[in-house]
C-alpha cells in the first residue's frame, strides 16, 4: 500500500481500510509502508488518532511502529511523548521499544535520558549492543569520554561485542585531547583489536592515524606502507613480531589439539586408540620432520594428472636441502590401481617417510599432531583450510592461536600454468614470517588494515599497514 | 468491537451514561466505560473544533485518558516468585509487540525459558512453544468441527431412520489389536531380532530425546502392523533414564505390555558378534542385500546438529561390522542429510525383509531428498552429468538436474 501524503480524516481512513484485503492488519501494514517511505509524521498521527477514536486504545505494536517512524526522523518531542504514554500504559516495555527510545534520544540534546533508560533496561535484561552503542556514541559526542569508556567496559564485561563503528567513534571524538588516562584507554582499544585479531578498515585506520597525530606534544607521525616479506617495516625499519608462537602458547595449542581435535568426545570418531598409538610411536621414532604433507590433498591438485604423479611432483619439489618429509596417506594408496602406481609409490618412499592410516580414519588430525610434535620450525602442506578442526577447539582464544599458527606454518600449493620444470608446476604460497596483528613497541605502532570496508575472508590477512612512530 | 462501538455511540448520544453514572451503574458498565468516557470527551472536542480540521495529537489525549481506568483494571495475579513474574511480563510485552510467543505458558516452561543460555535459544524455545500452541488450537478447532458434523449426520440418520444390514461383522480396532499382538508375540519367539541401541542419551538434547522416542514409537507401531514383524530389542536401556521417562510419557500404561524386549545389556552380550551389523550413514560399507540371518542395529539417536561419526565410533569400538543404506547407488540425491528418521529406516527394513526390492524399500526416503530412482549406478550418471555440465558451461547445475529428474522420474 502507498501511504497517503497528507493527514486523513477518519472517514477517509475507514474507506482505505475497507478497500484493503485484510482489514485487521491494515494499520500495521500502513505504518510499515510509512516507515519505508519515510512519510511525514503527521500522516501517521492522523492514523493513530483515527485508531484511538475507533477503538479507544492503541495496540503496543502499533505504538512501536510509530516510534520507529519518529526515531527515523529524529522527532525528539514525539519520542518523549510516546515514551510517557507507554510508561503509564504498560508496566514494562520490551527490548525493541527500548532500543528505539535509546537510539532516538541519544541523538538529541536529551541524550542523558537515554542513559537513564539504559539503566532501566539493565534491571531486566542484558541491553543489546545497539543500546550500548547509541549511549557510548552520545557520551563521546558530548566529550564525556570517561562515561563512554565506563559504558564500553561494562559492555565488554557482559560479553556484548562492540562494532568497529563504536571503536572508531572513540578515536574520532578524542582527537586533540590531552589526557593521559584517555590515552591509556585508547591504547586499550588497540590492544583489544590485537587480542581478537580484528583488522580495522580504511576509514577506521584513518581515524586512528589522525588521533595519534593530534595528540598535543605527542610527536606521533603515521605512514601507510606495505611490509616486506622479511617482516621489516620500510618506514621505520622496525622488525615486526615473529609469527612463531611462544613456548607456552605452543604447548598450550598442541595439548588442546590432541585433546579436543584428535580425541574429542570419542577417540573412535576420528581414528582408533590402537592406530593413534601406532602413529605416535611412528612419529616419536622419526622426529623431527621439517615438512608434513597431506598426501591425499596434494594428490588432487591437478585433476588431469594421475594422483600419485601429483604427489610425486610435490615430494620432489619439497625434498630439497635434506628436508625431512613426512607424507600422510591412507592404506588404499598402497593398492596398485589406475591412480596409484606401485613403482612410483616405492620411489617416493625412498625420499620421504610415509604413514598410512586406515581408510576410514581422518588423516588431517594426524597431520596436525605430527607437525606440532616436530616443533616450531615444522611446516605442513595442504590446501585444506582446516576449518572443521579449528571448530573443535573449545574457546576463541585457542582458535586464534590455531589460526596464527596456521598462518605461520601452512604451505598451500596451487597449480600454476602448464610447465615441465618443477619450479613452475606449483606455485607455493609461503607461510608468513611475521605476525599479522596490531602490535606496539611503545614508541611505534604497527596496525594492519583492510583496504576496503567490506569483510575479507577470514583466512586472508591484510597486506597493508599503518606505521606510527614517535619522534 | 466496531459494532460494540457503534452501539456505544448510540448510547452516548441518547445520553444514558450520565444517568448510569449518577446511579452508580458505572461498575456494571465497567468494560465499556473506558470507551464510553472517551467517546464523550471526543464528542466535546469535536464540537469545539471547526469540522474538517484534524487534531493530530488527539490520540495522546485518548491514550492518557484511558489510563486512570487502566490502572484500576490491574487484577492481582496468583503469586509467583518475582523473577518468574517478571519473565512472564516480558513475554507478554513480546507478544504484544508481535513476536512469536505463546499466549499461555506454564511455570515449568517458564523455568525452561529462563534457563536457556542465550537470547537466540530463548527465541527459539518461545517459537517452538508458540507453534505448538497453534497446532493444538487448530486440532481442537478441527475436532470441534468434526463433532458437529457427526452430530448433524446423526440427526439426519435418525430422521431417515434406516437400519443398515451388513453381511460383514464389524471389525473393531480391539480385534485388530489382538491380531497384531498375536503376530508380535510370535515374532518374539521366532522373529528376526532388530536392535535399537539406546546409548546415545548423552549425545542429545532433551528435545532430541523426545523426538527419538516419538520416532521409535512410530517404528514400533509400523512393525506391529506388518505381516512379519521384527523382534524388537531395546539394548543398553537404563531404567529411569531420560529415554525411559519419555517412553512412559508416550505409552503410559501400555509401556509394560509392549511386545518387545527391553534390556540394559549390550547387544554384544546377547548376540554373537559376527551376526551383528550396525547400520550407520557414516559406514564406508554399503549394504547390498538384506540378510535374514543377521541382526541389524539401529542407533536411537536424533542428530539435529549433524555429529558425524558418533555411531560409527560406537561400532568401531566394539569391532562390529557396519553398513550404510545404498542411497547413493539407487537414488540421485539432491538435498538433505543421508541420515534418515528411525521410522523411515524401520519401513525400509520391513519392506526389504518382505520383498527384497530396493526400489520399493527406498520409496520411504522422503521425496524432497532425491531427484529420482536410477537403475544404473549413479557414478556413471554423474560422469555424464559432469560432461553435460562442462559442455553447457555457464548454465547452472540445477538445469541439468532438472533434466535428469525428467528422464528418471520419481515413480
Relevant terms:
heterodimer; A: about 475 residues; alpha/beta; Serine Threonine Protein Phosphatase 5, Tetratricopeptide repeat; Rossmann fold; 4-stranded antiparallel beta sheet; 10 strands; about 10% strand; elongated; B: about 400 residues; Alpha/beta knot; 6-stranded parallel beta sheet; 17 helices; 8 strands
Structure commentary:
The complex is a heterodimer of chains A (471) and B (411). Chain A has helices at residues 10-19, 26-37, 41-55, 60-73, 76-89, 95-106, 111-124, 129-141, 145-157, 164-173, 180-195, 202-214, 247-263, 273-286, 295-298, 307-318, 342-351, 363-374, 387-392, 396-409, 422-425; strands spanning 220-226, 291-294, 325-330, 353-357, 379-381, 410-415, 426-429, 439-440, 444-449, 464-470. With 471 residues, chain A is an alpha/beta fold. Among the domains of chain A are: 163-241 and 438-470, Alpha Horseshoe (Serine Threonine Protein Phosphatase 5, Tetratricopeptide repeat), CATH 1.25.40.10; 247-428, 3-Layer(aba) Sandwich (Rossmann fold). Residues 417-428 of chain A have low confidence and may be disordered. Chain B has 411 residues and is an alpha/beta fold. In chain B, the strands form two sheets. Chain B has a six-stranded parallel β-sheet. In chain B, strands 7-8 form a two-stranded antiparallel ribbon. Chain B is globular. The A-B interface holds A 7, 9, 28, 42, 45-46, 48-49, 51-61, 64, 81, 85, 88-94, 96-97, 124-125, 266-270, 272, 359-360 and B 1-2, 5, 34-35, 38-39, 42, 52, 54-60, 62-64, 66-67, 70, 86, 89-90, 93-94, 96-98, 284, 308-310, 312-314, 316-317.
Shape of chain B: globular
Given helix and strand content, the structural type of chain A is alpha/beta
Provide the low-confidence segments of chain B as ranges: 14-22, 24-51, 69-77
Structural classification of chain B: alpha/beta
CATH architecture designation of the domain at 167-378 in chain B = 3-Layer(aba) Sandwich
- Largest beta sheet of chain B: what is the strand line-up? 3-2-1-5-4-6
Number of helices of chain B: 17
Q: What's the CATH class label of the domain at 167-378 in chain B?
A: Alpha Beta
Q: Kindly state the percentage of residues in helix of chain A.
A: 40-55%
Please count the beta strands of chain A (DSSP E, at least 2 residues each). Answer: 10
Helix-strand string of chain B: HHHHHHHHEHEHEHEEHEHEHHEHH
What is the tally of helical segments of chain A?
Answer: 21
CATH topology of the domain at 167-378 in chain B: Alpha/beta knot
Unreliable residue runs of chain A:
417-428
Distance between the termini of chain A: 63 Å
Distance between the termini of chain B: 54 Å
Secondary structure: helix percent of chain B = 40-55%
Percent of sequence in beta strands of chain B: 5-15%
Amino acid at each position: 500500500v502507498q501511504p497517503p501524503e497528507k493527514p486523513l480524516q477518519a472517514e477517509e481512513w475507514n474507506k482505505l481500510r475497507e478497500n484493503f484485503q485484510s482489514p485487521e492488519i491494515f494499520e500495521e501494514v500502513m505504518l510499515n509502508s510509512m516507515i519505508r517511505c519515510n512519510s511525514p509524521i503527521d500522516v501517521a498521527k492522523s492514523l493513530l488518532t483515527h485508531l484511538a477514536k475507533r477503538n479507544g486504545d492503541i495496540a503496543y505494536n502499533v505504538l512501536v511502529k510509530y516510534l520507529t517512524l519518529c526515531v527515523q526522523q529524529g522527532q525528539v518531542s514525539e519520542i518523549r511523548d510516546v515514551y510517557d504514554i507507554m510508561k503509564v500504559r504498560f508496566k514494562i516495555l520490551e527490548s525493541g521499544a527500548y532500543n528505539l527510545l535509546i537510539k532516538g534520544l541519544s541523538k538529541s540534546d536529551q541524550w542523558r535520558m537515554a542513559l537513564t533508560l539504559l539503566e532501566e533496561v539493565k534491571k531486566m535484561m542484558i541491553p543489546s549492543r545497539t543500546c550500548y552503542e547509541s549511549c557510548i556514541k552520545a557520551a563521546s559526542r558530548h566529550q564525556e569520554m570517561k562515561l563512554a569508556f565506563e559504558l564500553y567496559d561494562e559492555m565488554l564485561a557482559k560479553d556484548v561485542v562492540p562494532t568497529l563503528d563504536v571503536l572508531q567513534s572513540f578515536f574520532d571524538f578524542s582527537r586533540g585531547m590531552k589526557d593521559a588516562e584517555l590515552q591509556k584507554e585508547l591504547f586499550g582499544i588497540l590492544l583489544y583489536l590485537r587480542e581478537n585479531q580484528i583488522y580495522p578498515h580504511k576509514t577506521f585506520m584513518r581515524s586512528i592515524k589522525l588521533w595519534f597525530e593530534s595528540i598535543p606534544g605527542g610527536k606521533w607521525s603515521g605512514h601507510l606502507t606495505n611490509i616486506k616479506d622479511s617482516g621489516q617495516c620500510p618506514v621505520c625499519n622496525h622488525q615486526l613480531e615473529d609469527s612463531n608462537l611462544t613456548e607456552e602458547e605452543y604447548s598450550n595449542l598442541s595439548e588442546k589439539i590432541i585433546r579436543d581435535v584428535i580425541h574429542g568426545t570419542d577417540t573412535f570418531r576420528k581414528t582408533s586408540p590402537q592406530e593413534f598409538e601406532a602413529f605416535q610411536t611412528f612419529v616419536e621414532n622419526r622426529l623431527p620432520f621439517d615438512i608434513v604433507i597431506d598426501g591425499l590433498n596434494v594428490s588432487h591438485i591437478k585433476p588431469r594428472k594421475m594422483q600419485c604423479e601429483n604427489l610425486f611432483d610435490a615430494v620432489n619439489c619439497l625434498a630439497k636441502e635434506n628436508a625431512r618429509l613426512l607424507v600422510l596417506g591412507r592404506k588404499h594408496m598402497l593398492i596398485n590401481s589406475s591412480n596409484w602406481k606401485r613403482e612410483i609409490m616405492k620411489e617416493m618412499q625412498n625420499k620421504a617417510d610415509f604413514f598410512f592410516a586406515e581408510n576410514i580414519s581422518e588423516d588431517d588430525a594426524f597431520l596436525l599432531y605430527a607437525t606440532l610434535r616436530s616443533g616450531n620450525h615444522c611446516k605442513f602442506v595442504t590446501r585444506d583450510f582446516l576449518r572443521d578442526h579449528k571448530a573443535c577447539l573449545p574457546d576463541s582464544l585457542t582458535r586464534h592461536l590455531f589460526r596464527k599458527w596456521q598462518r605461520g606454518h601452512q604451505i598451500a600449493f596451487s597449480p600454476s600454468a602448464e610447465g615441465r620444470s618443477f619450479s613452475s608446476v606449483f606455485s607455493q604460497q609461503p607461510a608468513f614470517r611475521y605476525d599479522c596483528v596490531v602490535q606496539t613497541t611503545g614508541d611505534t605502532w604497527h596496525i594492519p588494515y583492510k583496504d576496503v570496508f567490506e569483510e575479507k575472508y577470514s583466512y586472508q590477512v591484510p597486506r597493508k599497514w599503518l606505521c606510527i612512530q614517535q619522534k | 468491537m466496531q459494532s460494540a462501538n457503534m452501539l456505544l455511540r448510540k448510547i452516548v448520544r441518547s445520553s444514558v451514561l450520565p444517568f448510569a453514572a449518577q446511579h452508580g451503574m458505572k461498575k456494571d458498565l465497567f468494560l465499556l466505560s473506558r470507551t464510553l468516557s472517551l467517546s464523550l470527551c471526543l464528542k466535546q472536542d469535536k464540537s469545539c473544533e471547526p469540522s474538517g480540521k484534524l487534531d493530530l495529537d488527539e490520540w495522546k489525549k485518548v491514550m492518557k485518558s484511558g489510563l486512570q481506568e487502566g490502572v484500576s483494571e490491574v487484577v492481582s495475579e496468583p503469586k509467583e516468585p518475582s523473577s518468574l513474574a517478571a519473565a512472564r511480563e516480558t513475554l507478554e510485552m513480546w507478544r504484544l509487540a508481535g513476536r512469536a510467543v505463546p499466549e499461555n505458558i506454564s511455570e515449568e516452561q517458564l523455568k525452561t525459558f529462563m534457563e536457556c543460555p542465550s537470547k537466540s535459544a530463548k527465541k527459539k524455545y518461545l517459537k517452538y512453544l508458540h507453534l505448538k500452541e497453534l497446532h493444538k488450537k487448530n486440532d481442537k478447532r478441527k475436532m470441534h468441527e468434526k463433532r458437529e458434523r457427526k452430530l448433524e449426520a446423526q440427526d439426519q440418520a435418525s430422521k431417515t431412520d434406516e437400519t443398515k444390514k451388513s453381511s460383514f461383522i464389524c471389525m473393531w480396532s480391539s480385534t485388530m489389536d489382538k491380531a497384531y499382538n498375536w503376530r508380535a508375540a510370535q515374532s518374539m519367539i521366532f522373529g528376526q531380532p532388530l536392535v535399537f541401541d539406546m546409548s546415545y542419551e548423552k549425545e542429545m538434547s532433551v528435545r532430541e530425546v523426545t523426538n527419538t522416542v516419538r520416532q521409535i514409537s512410530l517404528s514400533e507401531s509400523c512393525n506391529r502392523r506388518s505381516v512379519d514383524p521384527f523382534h524388537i530389542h531395546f539394548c543398553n536401556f537404563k531404567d529411569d533414564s531420560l529415554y525411559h521417562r519419555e517412553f512412559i510419557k508416550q505409552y503410559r500404561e501400555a509401556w509394560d505390555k509392549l511386545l518387545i524386549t527391553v534390556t540394559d545389556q549390550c547387544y554384544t552380550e546377547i548376540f554373537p558378534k559376527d551376526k551383528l551389523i550396525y547400520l550407520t550413514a557414516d559406514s564406508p560399507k554399503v549394504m547390498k542385500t538384506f540378510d535374514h540371518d543377521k541382526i541389524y542395529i539401529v542407533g536411537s539417536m536424533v542428530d539435529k546438529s549433524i555429529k558425524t561419526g558418533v555411531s560409527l565410533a560406537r561400532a568401531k569400538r566394539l569391532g562390529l561390522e557396519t553398513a550404510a543404506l545404498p542411497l547413493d547407488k539407487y537414488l540421485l540425491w539432491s538435498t538433505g542429510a543421508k541420515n534418515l528418521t528411525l521410522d523411515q529406516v524401520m519401513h525400509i527394513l520391513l519392506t526389504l525383509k518382505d520383498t527384497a526390492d530396493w526400489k520399493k524399500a527406498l520409496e520411504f526416503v522422503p521425496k524432497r531428498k532425491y531427484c529420482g530412482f536410477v537403475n544404473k549406478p549413479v557414478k556413471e550418471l554423474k560422469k555424464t552429468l559432469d560432461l553435460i555440465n562442462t559442455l553447457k558451461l555457464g548454465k547452472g547445475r540445477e538445469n541439468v538436474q532438472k533434466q535428469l529428474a525428467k528422464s528418471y522420474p520419481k515413480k
